[in-house]
User: Fold this.
Amino acid sequence: MARILPAVGCKNPQTDSTVLRFFRRFELNRILDSCGIRKKKGLPSWDIVLCFISMVFANKSISALDKEENLPCGKSSMFRFLDNPRYCWRKVVLLFSVKVLFSFVKPAAGKENKLFEVLIVDDTLYPRKRSKKVELLSRRHDHSNNQYVKGFDLLTVGYSDGISFIPMAFSLQSSQKKSVRLQEACPDIDKRTHGGKLRSEAIQGKPKALLALLSEISKAGVKTRHILFDSWFGSNSLISDLMGEGYLPICMVKDWKGMKFSLEGESLTLSQLYRKVKYRLNYRSRDVMGSVLVSLGKDSKGNLCHGHVIFVRNRNKGKREWLAIVNTDPSLTEREAVRIYGKRWDIEVFFKVCKSVLKLARELQVRSFDSLVAHTSIVFLRYMLLSCENRLRQDERSHGELFAALCDELEDISLKQAIDLLFAYLELAAREEALTPERLKELQESFMADLAQSIRYFQANKIPLSVAA
Assistant:
């Protein structure tokens, strides 16, 4: 694997890192400029963004880098950069993911994975347990622990071809109920800015936010037939709306009063539907028990939407337990639909890697909603690097193992810089005719002083001026 962490601004292809070459290859600097993320003076936005992206691989926090005087600019400037409500960070993620998708992922896949080209929708908890004054902070339900915690819901839409997962769009969701929100949005933010629109979107609800995200993805040129999501999003209205937009959802559904199925003129819940058709099912099957064609409601154009409810055996809970999957694509067989739905697990892996490895929601402690969106965008860019490296190298290791390998490369670069500096001082010493012990001690002290600087990530090698000349 190639080197990963050189000094910022290094243009030597032999010492360029994986991070630098990856984001140069897909022209992140141009995308930042097209999204309005630019500065009138001072350090270019590209260097600051690259600093934020690379911090996690250096295993350094922004405070630690500031104490080491190893930031490209001041610490306050770094935070102000994230806090700008006019920067379109979500557009950066979308444009960059489209660039990666059409110039790398699709050409690498060829035509054999057409069936598995899907959009996957899910949300995960974005916890801020110790926060008090974060904008739009609310109490959210943690399904894994079955308790309420402070934070947001991170609604995410990503593309998968069965091999690689590429995050494309996201929305940080607060609560629609004002009584549940612990903090309101800053009243000084102009509602016409990008940040003002995101704050309004955060309290309008997940279904509306999802449709808005899908509209942005479609306008960017990414359109798939199938869209996958779990039972939380499985409702008649959302499925009908998605079918009206041209998608064919494949989703899991659960037994609740808000989800109805029309069969032979009757409106049935999932359990009622199962009791009505259970005599048609194959109980000897190990996986797919059977399916039934039902009506799901009407889309925005008034057209009736149909789909198959596929009953699948739940292997984890005994022979008589079952799960239900709705497939709205009539061209797919039952087993093909179940197999495609299995790709939904890719987004769960994505959430796990972002939280445990890429430090989502725990790397920066900020209060501004714009900063939260900016840092989430940076984490998504990091994941695209890991996903593409995994595919490019045809590496069987997990994303976490790849991340550890990239971090190890930092030590290799530091060692190389130290050796180069040592030989530079040896060359300087060899040029001096009378090398006294006192002079040798001076050179040793100079080497140790320069070494502390040379192994830092964001500064170039410090070679003695006499040698460089």
Notes: The first helix runs from residue 18 to 25. Residues 1-15, 452-469 have pLDDT under 50 and may be disordered. The longest strand covers residues 147-160. The two ends are 34 Å apart (CA to CA).
